[in-house]
Amino acid sequence: MTQRRRSRTTFLAIIALIVVWWFMSAPPDYLEIGPAVDLGGTAESILAVEASPEALGLALEHVDSDVPGHDDVLLREDDGYALVSGMDGWIWRVPLDGGGERYADVQLISSGLRAAPDDHDVIYFCASRLHGEENPPDERVGLYQLKISAREVTPIVTEVAMTPAIPDQRHKVFADTDPAAPSVMQATIDGTNSRPLAFCNDLDVSADGKRIYFTEPIAYEGASMGGGAVGEAITLGKNGRLWRHDLETGETRLVADGFHFIDGILIDPHPADAREESVLVTQTPGFAITRFFLAGPRAGTAEEVWTGLPGMPDGMDRDAQGRIWVGLYRKRSNFLTWAHNNPWIKPLLLRLPLELLPVPKETGILALSPDAATPLYYAIYEGPKLSDAAVGIPGTNHLYIANFDREQHGLVRMSYPPLD
């Protein structure tokens, strides 16, 4: 065989292997690539409050503990400890000066810790699968309650109304008075009127303690925290949902449908009203913060508060002054901005192993005014102290930052920066 023929045979073999790989690695049908999206540049108002590159790294303080990486921290400063949603499947009890212990064994991996405003002994949390982990088949995704003194975990919602994995509607917000909102009474669930909750990521509790809002970023096969969201992040699919559970009536009702990866949730304060009128949510891989109006003159609509943020907004929390602290899970890269504007590259990205995807290493924090309209502080960090900022949790003297990295241990906190 001549050298030219051998080269041609080798070339054809390589082409054949690429073709076979291309078809064998095809993503599932539910990962539909949409049109080009121009995320634009970072808003000047955010850049105006950006801290110097080294500021966040210098401010970060490590509290030594065996607690692993975690999604959220619930502070009990008067009692001298925090409850932490560990990535090992336990809620930890960690003294604020270090140490700690595994406190409550929960279903799957907990996230989104929230205190019951009417009972100091009760907290609520989500439980979901973590990508790459072997999840026990008998443990269920859901919204749960922990009675702290008894270390007693009780399911609240593990089934929701019978809605399809891929939403039928896009950008739909159901007003409180809308009778068309899918709902189910937990007491009447029988397998024909409901489906298992696929992913419970974050939650917030109404001021009167009667209603819990919780997010379901995706509901199709493989829904999970971490790597399970990568396909949705690449396609910018609109498959996220927000649910509300009424603790008095037992009704679980759909609030919003067909938004991109609804993740963090924060109820807007409405001191003059008996009931909340709107909520804020993050659409994490979409670099957006959105407000859903549930009551009042704008009921049933959505408002884009922020788009094209400089990082992926994950969880949100409020400090004593009502200011909002947002975890920027990963900084927005130039490549990702380009890829969303050039979707022809996405079929290739969807076929690559997670390890080969160009993921930035920087993480950060964003502070906003109580109405979320005005940036107050923005900082990005890359280094060993903090790798995946899930949310900023305000305390009296420190801002704690949940670090969602299974390889990290301990708590991370910082003194408050000036917010002029």
Topology-level CATH name: Neuraminidase
Specify the CATH homologous superfamily.
TolB, C-terminal domain
Global geometry: globular
Helical content (DSSP H or I, runs of 4+): 10-25%
Looking at the overall shape, the CATH architecture is 6 Propeller
Measured between the Cα atoms of the first and last residue, the distance is 77 Å
Tell me the total number of β-strands. 28
Continuous helix count: 6
Query: Radius of gyration, rounded?
Result: 22 Å
Return residue spans where pLDDT drops below 50 for at least 5 consecutive residues.
none
Description:
The chain is built from six helices and 28 strands. The mean pLDDT is 95. 12% of the residues lie in helices and 40% in strands. The chain starts with a helix and ends in a 5-residue tail after the last strand. It is mainly beta. The chain has helices at residues 3-24, 44-47, 55-59, 230-235, 334-341, 346-349; strands spanning 61-68, 70-76, 81-86, 90-95, 101-105, 109-115, 122-128, 142-147, 152-157, 159-161, 172-173, 183-185, 194-196, 203-205, 211-216, 240-246, 251-259, 262-267, 278-283, 288-293, 301-306, 311-318, 324-331, 363-368, 375-381, 389-394, 398-403, 409-415. The chain has one domain (42-415): Neuraminidase, CATH 2.120.10.30. Strand 19 and strand 20 form a beta hairpin. Strands 11, 12, 14, 15, 16 and 17 form a six-stranded antiparallel β-sheet that branches.
Feature tags:
4-stranded antiparallel beta sheet, 40% strand, Neuraminidase, 6-stranded antiparallel beta sheet, mainly beta, 12% helix, 28 strands, 6 helices, 420 residues
